[in-house]
Design a protein that fits this description.
The complex is a heterodimer of chains A (about 375) and B (about 140).
Chain A: E1 4-11, H1 22-37, E2 47-50, H2 59-67, E3 74-77, H3 83-96, E4 102-109, H4 136-151, H5 155-169, H6 183-188, E5 191-194, E6 196-197, E7 207-215, H7 216-221, E8 229-238, H8 252-266, E9 275-277, H9 283-292, H10 301-306, H11 323-327, H12 331-346, E10 360-367, E11 371-379
Parallel strand pairs in A: 2-3, 2-4, 9-10
Antiparallel strand pairs in A: 1-7, 1-8, 4-7, 5-6, 8-11, 10-11
Chain B: E1 6-7, E2 12-13, E3 21-27, E4 33-35, E5 50-54, E6 58-67, E7 78-85, E8 90-95, E9 110-122, E10 128-136
Parallel strand pairs in B: 1-10
Antiparallel strand pairs in B: 2-3, 3-4, 3-5, 6-7, 6-9, 7-8, 9-10
The chains are: A alpha/beta (about 375), B mainly beta (about 140).
The complex binds zinc ion (ZN).
């Protein structure tokens, strides 16, 4: 099988664009990714389009109405918060399999403000607040408290994730928020679902990100290897059976499974990774994944944040983009936005937040329900 | 409209005579228990091995969150709790009769299942509902 490379990748600065349609928001990133490699829509042999909010709305085809209806096959993808990464992976697989030489993957989302989560079924009575909470801040708080019960992780350690990621965001002009938040401010912010305060929850925003994926032969032919990023591994996992699945969505076992398979596919281990963009939808979530991705033992996750090992300049910087906590979390776009961030470092184009000498990076997203997508990326030249 | 309260979830059973109880399904092949009806085991994949079991009314607190922000009209704060019942079945619900403060909540604290009106909630037809809650075991 051929190797597949990212030759063009970009994201728009996330924000709120109620005056635009979903395809219009997606079209912006698509054009930016094409411009990043100097190709046009006429070069693209297929489009893989990730969007959750209008999953039955043929967003990919409508996106082509914005940027060029060339008649190529369009696959619309929905996979919770792993939607963008899944669209990217489908695009990667099509190149890897030799079906196409160059394809486009787009992730796009337009979100409302407010709480996400299930309000219960349509019949009978509402279950929220009667049988616990199905809101996302509470669900991820419970997952964090599970880590606390096993490893003694503290409210303060969870809060430090927000301090770190918000600090990183001040170096990223594409983050929705670029504001420092000292520890007391994070801990004293409005409590949403203990231990997640308002500053420990990701921001609902609109956004899009896109990538052009190319076979090695075609990338060489087009003279695009200089800035190309090799996809060393692409893995998607669903959640294997766990005893509390029915009441506690599991983000751990699918991440562990995907990470193990990704390291095997890439032929390397966690020690080889120079930076990580992972799914910090809530501050409690980030801590879980240090151990799940194998960059430390589960019981050392709190120490990793205490000692700055996961901060820019530390042993293995995590979420130097500012993460979902500050960059924002447009569900369908997030997976490709993470790929954009890591690619930008591998290209040594990340400016003030550049992870020095970064050669290999990892991206991770989790869609509750659950879907985990991991990509291992490497600078080609 | 029913004269009697209806169960808030299908796995809460209200017998004509006797006390309400929670019902699970146990896999005859691997022994796993599940809340709610099913015909195939999601752990081992066995088909048609499920049989109904009455779940115990006591367990231990596994994890929780104290919810301060919920949907409009939902009274806060409250404790959203994951409980492991004594037979290993995991169940989620409100932990009541405890001040919602982490200082008062310990992992593995023994809790019991109690049945009570569903916080006054009624459906579109005006029916009342019976729900379950957890409270510290006395
Ligand atoms: Zn079974």
């Amino acid at each position: 099988m051929t190797d597949a490379y990212i030759v063009g990748v970009d994201m728009i600065k996330f924000g709120r664009f109620p005056e635009k349609t979903v395809p219009q928001i997606g079209a912006q990133a698509a054009l930016m990714a094409l411009d990043d490699c100097g190709l046009s829509i006429q070069h693209m042999q297929a489009l893989y389009c990730g969007n959750l909010g209008q999953a039955s709305g043929m967003v990919g085809q409508r996106l082509l109405q914005e940027i060029g209806q060339t008649g190529i096959p369009v696959v619309n993808v929905a996979n919770a918060c792993a939607t963008g990464a899944t669209a990217f992976r489908e695009a990667w697989a099509s190149v890897k399999a030799g079906l196409y030489d160059v394809v486009l993957a787009v992730g796009v989302e337009q979100m409302g403000k407010g709480l996400l989560g299930g309000a219960g079924g349509k019949t009978g009575i509402p279950k929220e607040g009667l049988m616990g909470s199905g809101t996302m801040p509470a669900v991820f708080a419970e997952a964090g408290m599970e880590h606390a019960r096993h490893y003694g992780t503290t409210f303060e350690q969870f809060a430090k994730v927000s301090v770190k990621n918000h600090h990183h965001s001040t170096l990223n002009p594409k983050a929705m928020y670029q504001i420092e938040t000292p520890l007391e401010e994070v801990m004293n912010a409005e409590m949403i679902s203990y231990p997640n305060t308002k500053l420990m929850c990701s921001v609902n925003v609109d956004g899009s990100a896109a990538a052009v994926i190319c076979s090695e032969k075609k990338a060489r032919e087009l003279g695009l290897m200089d800035r190309a990023i090799k996809v060393r591994a692409s893995v998607l996992a669903s959640d294997p059976w766990q005893e509390r699945d029915l009441v506690m969505p599991d983000v751990n076992s699918c991440t562990q499974k995907a990470a193990k398979e990704a390291y095997e596919m890439a032929g390397l281990g966690p020690d080889d990774i120079d930076l990580i963009e992972l799914h910090d939808c809530f501050a409690t979530a980030e801590i879980l994944h240090y151990g799940n991705l194998g960059i430390c033992k589960q019981e050392d996750a709190g120490r990793m944040i205490d000692e700055g090992e996961v901060a820019l300049g530390g042993r293995i910087p995590v979420n130097v983009s500012g993460g979902l906590l500050s960059k924002g979390h447009p569900l369908g776009a997030t997976g490709i936005a993470n790929i954009y961030e890591v690619s930008t470092h591998l290209r040594n184009e990340a400016g003030a937040r550049q992870v020095e000498g970064a050669k290999i990076g990892l991206t991770h997203v989790i869609g509750l329900g659950s879907a985990c997508a991991i990509h291992v990326l490497e600078r080609a030249s | 409209m029913s004269n009697q309260p209806l169960p808030a979830v299908p796995y809460l059973k209200i017998p004509g005579d006797g006390s309400p109880y929670l019902e699970g399904q146990k896999c005859g092949s691997c022994g796993s228990t599940f809340l709610g009806e099913r015909s195939v085991c999601s752990k081992c994949g066995a088909r048609d091995q499920m049989s109904a079991v009455t779940l115990p009314n006591s367990g231990k607190l596994y994890s929780y969150s104290i919810v301060y922000r919920s949907f409009p009209g939902i009274e806060v704060p409250y404790i959203s709790a994951i409980v492991d019942l004594d037979d290993g079945t995991a169940i989620k619900g409100n932990l009541i009769n405890v001040e919602p403060d982490p200082a008062n909540i310990a992992f593995d604290m023994p809790v019991e299942v109690v049945f009570a009106d569903a916080l006054g909630r009624k459906d579109a037809d005006g029916n009342s509902y019976l729900s379950y809650f957890f409270q510290p075991k006395t």
